[in-house]
What we know:
This protein is α/β, with parallel strands linked by helices. The protein is built from 15 helices and 23 strands.
Amino acid sequence: MAISFQMGFQGHAAGFRRDSHGSIDLPSNRNYATEFGHVKISSKRRLFICLQRRSWRICCRRGASTLVRKEEIERRNADRCEEQLSILMKFGGSSVATAERMREVANLILSYPDERPVIVLSAMGKTTNKLIQAGEKAVNCGVCNVPGIDELRSIIDLHLKTVNELGIDEAVISGLLEDLEQLLKGIAVMKELTARTRDYLASFGECMSTKIFAEYLNKIGIKARQYDAFDIGIITTDNFTNADILDVTYSTVAKTLLEDWSNTHEIPVVTGFLGKGFKSSAVTTLGRGGSDLTATAIGKALGLREIQVWKDVDGILTCDPNIHPQAMPVPFLTFEEAAELAYFGAQVLHPQSMGPARESGIPVRVKNSYNPKAPGTLITKQRDMSKAFVTSIILKSSITILDIVSTKMLGRYGFLAKVFSIFEKLGISVDCVASSEISISLTLDPSKLWSRELIHQELDHVVEELEKIAVVHLFQSRSIISIIGNVQCSSLILEKAFGVLRENGVNTQMISQGASKVNMSLVVHDSEAKDCVASLHSAFFENTNGFNHEASP
Ligand SMILES: Nc1ncnc2c1ncn2[C@@H]1O[C@H](COP(=O)(O)OP(=O)(O)O)[C@@H](O)[C@H]1O
Ligand SMILES: N[C@@H](CC(=O)OP(=O)(O)O)C(=O)O
């Protein structure tokens, strides 16, 4: 079949190479459904398809690619109109890091033709880091040097390159890029980067990625509309850089998105990570990695069937792959397990993201946008725990231990109450607690609370307050190793864990088992922690002799 195509052919946009003579080069060894029936292209053979009167699109569909006629796409768009939004698909920065990745994500969305998805996107690649670094440089560099800030240049280059490669109009983002430069100049004039300005600055990443992606979807024939989260009713506390979503969000977001959907049937493409402060009306952010929380909050607001969180790993893994490359995917988790895992430091999920999913009972599926065939991790309310033993091992480093011993002026009851009232007054949350009759040990994560420059000053302040009622010892550079598992088997798990630590010559400095019954935490010195995680992983997941039935590869 030697066939040429008409203008408007979408193969190029869908990621397939188009040569200068107007034919397309399709990947081989795949099945293609065409007007001429089913065609399998064997290796090294090219298929040229005649599209004299029609516009076509190529979709990847569960492993096989399909040529779909324009009429079929229109029929699917029409079908969508009669149905409600069904799932949410959130793509993180690594999934939308380049134009090529955006094309692949669009294909991935097309590979779910029966769904009516809401899309949530993070900023492209490392854009958020670069925005914040540019802001920090602007404080001291002088207004006229702002245009030359490396990070600003790299953000502009990436976004312009992306729109050009996707074949969409630069105008989609040019206004935002100008505003960004103006904002950095404003920071340079003021010589100050407040938390409020930092959030506004960070918001440019998500605003640009969603505008580009929505425009691209429209270009390839999928009706889509970009939304800024702060305009559709994601209302938060005014705690800039780490805001919490307020309950009013759920009804407001549902009203806006559902009304628009029923009128226009455009797929919503929403900025992750961002909100609007309740009192200030200013842009807020939900803490680093906050797009996961945006995803579950919108999922809850709309009562969707499933929330998919697409990452660059095959789901939630048995430990951080950067610490131990033998980490393997965990197929099933409960909301409780996932929440503990996220709270105790697994970077893969935002610590608060499981809240809205748990409250609404909507399953969360963590998938790999680089390997969509991998099953990923399914997080649900309940799961079969009969074979559950250890699920994953999480490391949180650079934490501080406080040992607080009562000066006996207070009884134990009054002592604990007084200690916690001091933390409440200072707005500090505690991770692990272990107590005896007259003493209490607890861990704090200072990096979560204060900027690096303030940590020492603030810790001194905490100690000063506590010393009014107790003798206080402070130990820094400690790590919490959290073993997420079935606490019904806690003796067996701890026996094995302590055996491993003993073999490594490590003494545990604190032990804590939360009331959640899924987490056993051991505190060790930072310098020993990574080796301990690797050894524990080997013992629980690699050399198990059938011990850990559940998570074998
Ligand atoms: N237990 C874990 N399971 C999976 N990934 C983990 C885990 N701990 C740390 N990670 C890291 O988290 C990364 C994915 O999270 P993140 O970068 O926030 O994704 P995204 O930006 O795509 O939302 C992985 O690339 C991996 O390096
Ligand atoms: N872009 C924000 C929010 C976010 O969720 O990003 P990611 O999904 O890439 O972790 C950040 O970097 O923190």
